[in-house]
């Protein structure tokens, strides 16, 4: 796929893995097909919902290979790259570029805290290692070293670092980012934000796990936001926000995988030692999906 702007609804894909550690390629490919048919604007393997931190490098390669093949150039594929070292992050980004992805989602893993200069050096190195658009990913709830506003502003001057996905719960921080990058980077929200509000302040869309189980509803919300019909946008946003609130009570990967199982996709449980969704969680996710009409498109 030729270079194009990233925008809209980009689901964070799950990583279906069987008990023996093999990627369930048929299930993942069928899910990709369903999401593309539902109108999503891209696919993001190896985001948080994709359990990147729990997968071996060979499993990660296989997940990306399946997604690139399933997308077949119809929508962009933005693959997550996460490492504790610059040299490994560069190698993985280059490997995914050779496999045919359309962009890189850059994630910093850290055991020891890293200062601003180290954080900048890590993301700058990924950007310079490939010729693809790079999306910065920041999630202060799970990352030991976060992207500060000054570092984000500095990185916005690296030519192919063109986007940021902020998964904090602070929509005001998103507005601060938008103001500081002055159009050099597009800003994606996460399910922790209210996407309609993010679109109102200048966001370009959202990357989120819940879009895997509610793609049509998410795309409908995005299109209404693009038209600037904010009253209708909030009418669509409210029931979707109830779904996010249900997911916030449990492990996100467990919720999305549990929801997909209810829709007919045998994606399995989260990788151990994570726990699967408990019975009460299954009931809550079932109710949340039913309330927005997201169980009627179950896979055959």
Q: What does this protein look like?
A:
The chain is 45% helix and 12% strand. The chain has a domain at 8-215: Aldolase class I (TIM Barrel). It is globular, with a radius of gyration of 18 Å. α5 (149-155) links the parallel β4 (134-138) and β5 (161-166). The model has no long low-confidence stretch (mean pLDDT 93). With 300 residues, it is α/β, with parallel strands linked by helices. The protein contains 11 helices and 7 strands. α3 (86-99) runs parallel beside α4, α4 (116-129) packs parallel to α5 (149-155) and α9 runs antiparallel to α11 (279-291). It starts with 7 loop residues before the first strand and ends in a 9-residue tail after the last helix. The chain has a 7-stranded parallel sheet with strand order 1-7-6-5-4-3-2.
As residue ranges, the low-confidence spans are: none
Mean pLDDT: 93
* CATH T-level fold name of the domain at 8-215: TIM Barrel
Biggest β-sheet description: 7 strands, parallel
**Strand order of the main beta sheet, please?**
1-7-6-5-4-3-2
Radius of gyration: 18 Å
Q: What's the SSE pattern?
A: EHHEHEHEHEHEHEHHHH
Supply database-style keywords.
alpha/beta, seven-stranded parallel sheet, 7 strands, 45% helix, globular
Fold topology:
Blueprint: E1 8-11, H1 25-37, H2 57-71, E2 78-83, H3 86-99, E3 103-108, H4 116-129, E4 134-138, H5 149-155, E5 161-166, H6 171-181, E6 186-189, H7 195-200, E7 205-208, H8 215-227, H9 230-247, H10 252-262, H11 279-291
